[in-house]
Amino acid sequence: MADGSGLKTLPVKINPYFRSLIRSADDPIGRQVLPDPRELDDCNIEPDPLSEARQSPTPLVIHRYPQRVVFTVSNQCAVFCRFCMRKRTVHKQSRPAPQAIHSGLAYIAGNPEINEVILSGGDPFMLKDESLISILAALKKIRHVKLLRIHTRIPAVWPQRITIGLARRLSLFHPLFINIHFNHPNEITPQSIQACARLADTGIALGSQTVLLKGVNDEPGVLRTLFTRLLEIRVRPYYLHQIDRVPGTAHFQVPLDKGLQLMAALRGRISGMAMPHYMIDLPGGGGKVELLPEAIVKKTPGFYHVRNFQGHIIPYPVT
Known about the structure:
Distance between the termini: 24 Å
Helix content: 25-40%
Number of strands: 12
Shape: globular
Number of helices: 10
Order of helices and strands: HHEEHHEHEHHEHEHEHEEEEE
């Protein structure tokens, strides 16, 4: 059953902090990180359905959109999420070679149309402070790079990592935006609130990218509570993301019709600032699209046909 996705042995990684939030294997926290035999049911599907490897002109850089790139500076995470879109690389827990980092920086420097760089992984905050700061400093020196983003799960799963000193050093790189991955209200604890406050107090804009997960947060009341509480701690809900179709995740899939119904149930019942965009990432490298009625060109049995940012029509399974 090994196919490069890391599903042969169902590797597990849970740090002590996040383990302390688990009350049972079937609670919303446990379901996200504890292995489930159902992960083996669909382990032979494409491990890279978004064609990230095909859109990587140099190791660690994903260049899908003309003016921005994703720079995967770490392949390590504080926990292994069972629904991880990059489990094909993250479960290997390898460290990118310094030469790969240098090659990524050189590619970005050599392409003046790139004005935004998103540090991702893995999790960039798994790097040591000096390593992360040195990458940000190198990017800041590239004149055509105007915006920096960090995508992370750390404030939710290992909030102690966000120290006052690190937050102050990050504040030297404005405009810097940090998108945090929160999936359930139980992840908003005194510790995660403090981590977010340390970042927000330095002027860093915080957003959240929530993954819609069956059995975790696919209820209107759960999402209302999550998005409202995030806004209260100065984290603006940014995306409600349809789970990517990677191996071992079929049991987390929420049908698109239900996702649209959940969004309808939120409108008018929470602050407009707490309303995220409902996003899907189209297969084959088609890119992210907000799922709105005008984005859906037609329906055929089993599929929505969705128009992407380039005007291409790409089929997307409804379940």
